[in-house]
């Protein structure tokens, strides 16, 4: 089973405009609301890909029934601790003409220490059942920036064989790396901001990733680069690829689908190059869908059959 953690879930409200113009009235063509939060998104993508998954984390009492009903409808197992307050709403404005998204994200409610303690007990109970444990996303007020470091250690203490995947940014990523997760998945900007590297080419990403792997004893670094593709690096191998060509309908959640695709390949015991292939195809299948809709298996398999542009990046 792949277990995902979401400490700061949300409702993603996505509006699509023909062309988003500042200082003008923008007419909405399509509007939709989806359950969001990076870990939850990974579970949503995994269930679409046929992978058993459980989502855990913090939920909020005032409108948290939306989270519960959505996960139940999708058939995703869940273990959430309820906190007082409101599930945050993130506004995403998709510019149809320029294929770009403007995001306006709320911070999230306050989480008290006793709720985190209760969540740690849940995580400890789920770790022995988990082949992979994904720690992903931002954290709400009241949660320390060392939380992913602490939880990674907890998971490993309960199940040394469980592979922890970390998808976060800033201090959360930097602190979490100290626990030597199996894989981290920053985008290129998150990689630069957290670790202090300046990367413009795949060559520079590989060199930076190798330094991170050596310093933090991380197994794999998967770096997404948007329209420039992605790079995956281990101690002994590195591969790069351009993105798969699709009709872009929404970019929100593409990185989370990328993590789900990587999880599927890792569960299958595939090679590093195939992990990258699965990751970019899952991301491509996600951006074919509106709002924060995750990849569908049929689209993923169709893209997987076409994605042959993986090449070595050992410079």
List the helices and strands and how they pair.
Elements: E1 2-6, E2 10-17, E3 28-36, H1 38-48, E4 53-60, H2 65-74, E5 77-83, E6 88-95, E7 100-105, H3 113-126, E8 132-136, H4 147-158, E9 163-167, H5 170-177, E10 183-184, H6 188-195, H7 202-216, E11 220-224, E12 230-233, E13 238-241, H8 254-267, H9 272-287, H10 297-306, E14 311-312
Parallel strand pairs: 1-4, 1-8, 2-6, 4-5, 8-9, 9-10, 10-11
Antiparallel strand pairs: 2-3, 6-7, 11-12, 12-13, 13-14
Helix pairs in contact: 1-8, 3-4, 4-5, 5-6, 8-9, 9-10
Task: Describe the 3D structure.
- This protein has 315 residues and is an alpha/beta fold.
- It has one domain (2-312): Ribokinase (UDP-N-acetylmuramoyl-L-alanine:D-glutamate ligase, 3-Layer(aba) Sandwich).
- 37% of the residues lie in helices and 25% in strands.
- It has a 10-stranded mixed beta sheet, with helices on both faces. Strands 3-2-6-7 form a 4-stranded mixed beta sheet.
- Helix 2 links the parallel strand 4 and strand 5.
């Amino acid at each position: 089973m792949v277990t995902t953690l979401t400490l700061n879930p949300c409702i993603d409200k996505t509006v699509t405009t023909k062309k988003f113009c500042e200082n003008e009235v923008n007419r909405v063509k399509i509007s939709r609301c989806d359950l969001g939060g990076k870990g939850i998104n990974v579970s949503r993508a995994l269930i679409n890909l046929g992978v058993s998954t459980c989502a855990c984390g913090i939920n909020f009492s005032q409108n948290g029934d939306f989270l519960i009903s959505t996960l139940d409808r999708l058939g995703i197992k869940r273990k959430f601790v309820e906190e007082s307050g409101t599930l945050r709403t993130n506004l995403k404005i998709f510019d149809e003409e320029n294929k770009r998204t403007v995001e306006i994200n709320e911070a999230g409610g306050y989480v008290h220490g006793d709720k985190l303690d209760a969540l740690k007990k849940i995580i400890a109970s789920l770790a022995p059942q988990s082949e992979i444990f994904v720690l992903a996303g931002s954290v709400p007020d009241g949660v320390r920036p060392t939380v992913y470091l602490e939880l990674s250690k907890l998971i490993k203490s309960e199940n040394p064989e469980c592979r922890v995947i970390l998808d976060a940014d800033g201090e959360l990523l930097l602190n979490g790396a100290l626990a030597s997760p199996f894989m981290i998945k920053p985008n290129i900007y998150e990689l630069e901001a957290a670790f202090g590297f300046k990367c413009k080419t795949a060559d520079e990403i590989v060199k930076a990733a190798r330094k991170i792997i050596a310093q933090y004893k991380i197994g794999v670094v998967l770096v997404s680069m948007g329209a420039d593709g992605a790079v995956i690096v281990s101690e002994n191998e590195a591969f790069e690829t351009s993105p798969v060509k699709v009709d872009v309908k929404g970019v929100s959640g593409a990185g989370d689908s990328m993590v789900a695709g990587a999880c599927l390949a890792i569960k299958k015991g595939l090679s590093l190059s195939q992990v990258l292939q699965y990751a970019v195809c899952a991301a491509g299948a996600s951006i074919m869908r509106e709002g924060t809709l995750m990849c569908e298996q049929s689209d993923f398999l169709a893209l997987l059959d076409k994605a042959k542009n993986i090449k070595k990046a050992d410079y």
